[in-house]
TrEMBL record:
Signal peptide: none annotated. The gene is cdr. The chain holds residues 3 to 446 of 549 of the full protein. This is CoA-disulfide reductase. GO terms for molecular function: CoA-disulfide reductase (NADPH) activity. Keywords: FAD, Flavoprotein, NADP, Oxidoreductase, Redox-active center. The keyword NADP applies. The keyword Protein transport does not apply. Its cofactor is FAD. Belongs to the class-III pyridine nucleotide-disulfide oxidoreductase family.
Length: 444
């Protein structure tokens, strides 16, 4: 069997490794248009901020190590530019020589990811120090600009997870940072009152935060950012982080179905409308695990899970992907922000009635040094007890509580079960009544 993979990072590499474990003899070809495969996207902000000092550490697998370990035919600098479904073949362009050639497949896996959105804001073309962050070359450009030009001020456009991680890391590099966010709050997966804790913390850390405001234009080669509300910011570095758009061109041109927001559509076995072509990762439209609505959730866990599932499915295992819960986490200076499932904004939009509890327990026993409060919000159905989602913000122990609730949701537990979760306790770690138990008591 000859299996071809488009995209060699999170989803693509996972699928390749799993395919090899399932079949010693398959011919597996992986095309990647960039130079690197299997790198740590999620670590990029921390390398720029110099928490991660060694660039080598970002390269989880090199072409050589992965090719020899898994007996793969890995071709970097190779962009797949066309899919010919009738002939079951691809046109590949060597991006260094521009040479084109054809390659056949029996089964095809698309994991091309999503790219940063760059809207046609007036002046954007001439903004000299404007960056987006997706891969190693972007990271190298940003890092060397900071190392060489020593910018004093940065504007981060977009207050999502990547925007805020970068705001922190740019601040670490000594820059004064302004975050411009179109919505009334940062971090869309949080509800407003939870995001407000982060707004306050960002200000405490000296980050300038402009909410309900967008960029109207860039002027003077991007050294002036003019916002829609008329604020003029003088700067020497701009990061655009307003979201990503699925890389769907190949799929579209081949007549594969894409959804309203551009995600490649797949069935529960991750097959497109062509049964020999599968798609995974940031490029696909998934189902929201809670409400079943189409969703775009560009996160590493789904890409990895789908990468493994797709390989299993090609080998007839029928692993069904049930949807994405959107469990996610980020560090924002001294705070951790984490969420799972649906927030109130989403449930309100869909007209799903729900109940909410807020608790503010301490992360571990109050009498043991270092305890700090966790703001924990639980959203659930009052009648059935179904847990719709949870959000937590705090300095310690936030990750554990959200992961417990994410597990409870996937396990089909209700709020009535939360008091009965028997969780590990000693004073440095928790309380005899854990914050999750507490939320459960209040909810039931
Ligand atoms: P990618 O990993 O983006 O890989 C797609 C690859 O396909 C790319 O290398 C691209 O060059 C290649 N490609 C595209 N088109 C073609 C073509 N036609 N031919 C050949 N190759 C092609 N997620 C988290 O869960 N937690 C985090 O903390 C987190 N932090 C992040 C921080 C940053 C800065 C970024 C950019 C992302 C972060 N993510 C995080 C998101 C996570 O990295 C992605 O969800 C994940 O990488 C998606 O995997 P993928 O395989 O779909 O796409």
């Amino acid at each position: 069997k000859k299996i071809v993979i488009v995209g060699g990072v999170a989803g693509g590499s996972t699928a390749a490794a799993r395919l090899r474990r399932l079949d010693e003899h398959a011919e597996i070809v992986m095309f990647e248009k960039g130079e690197h495969i299997s790198f740590a996207n999620c670590g990029l902000p921390y390398y720029i901020g110099e928490t991660i000092k060694d660039r080598q550490k970002l390269l989880v697998q090199t072409v050589e190590s992965m090719a020899s370990r898994y007996k793969l035919d890995i071709r970097t600098f190779s962009e797949v530019i066309q899919i010919n479904r009738e002939k079951r073949s691809l046109v590949v362009r060597n991006v260094q020589t521009n040479e084109k050639y054809e390659e056949t497949f029996d089964e095809l896996i698309l994991s091309p990811g999503a790219r940063p959105i760059v809207p046609p804001i007036p002046g954007i073309e001439d903004a000299a120090a404007l960056f987006t962050l997706r891969n190693i070359p972007d990271t190298d450009r940003i890092k060397s600009f900071i190392d060489n030009e020593k910018p004093k001020h940065a504007v981060v456009v977009g207050g999502g997870f990547i925007g805020l991680e970068m705001a922190e890391n740019l601040h670490e590099r000594g820059m004064e940072v302004t975050v411009v966010e179109m919505a009334e709050q940062v971090m869309a997966p949080l509800d407003y009152e939870m995001a407000a804790i982060i707004h306050k913390h960002l200000k405490e850390k000296g980050i300038h935060l402009l909410l309900n405001d967008g960029v109207k234009s860039f002027e003077e080669n991007g050294t002036k950012v003019i916002t829609q509300n008329g604020t003029e910011i003088t700067t020497d570095f701009i990061l655009l982080s307003i979201g990503v758009r699925p890389e769907n061109e190949l799929a579209k041109e081949a007549g594969l179905d894409v959804g309203k927001r551009g995600g490649i559509q797949v069935n529960e076995y991750l097959q497109t409308n062509d049964p020999n072509i599968y798609a995974i990762g940031d490029a696909i439209e998934v189902k929201d695990y809670m409400n079943g609505q189409p969703a775009m959730v560009p996160l590493a866990w789904p890409a990895n899970r789908q990468g493994r599932a797709v390989a299993d499915n090609i080998y007839g295992k029928k692993v069904s992907y049930k949807g994405t819960l959107g469990t996610s986490i980020a560090k924002v200076f001294d705070y951790t922000v984490a969420v799972t499932g649906n927030n109130e904004k989403t449930l309100d939009r869909l007209g799903i009635s729900h109940e909410v509890v807020h608790v503010h327990p301490v992360s571990h026993a109050g009498y043991y040094p270092g305890a700090s409060p966790i703001a924990l919000k639980l959203v659930f159905d009052k009648v059935t007890g179904t847990i719709y989602g949870a959000q937590a913000v705090g300095k310690e122990g936030v990750d554990k509580r959200i992961d417990i609730i994410a597990t409870a949701i996937k396990g089909g537990l209700t709020v009535l079960d939360l008091p009965d979760l028997e969780l590990a306790y000693a004073p440095p770690y928790s309380s005899a009544k854990d914050p999750v138990n507490m939320a459960g008591y209040v909810a039931s």
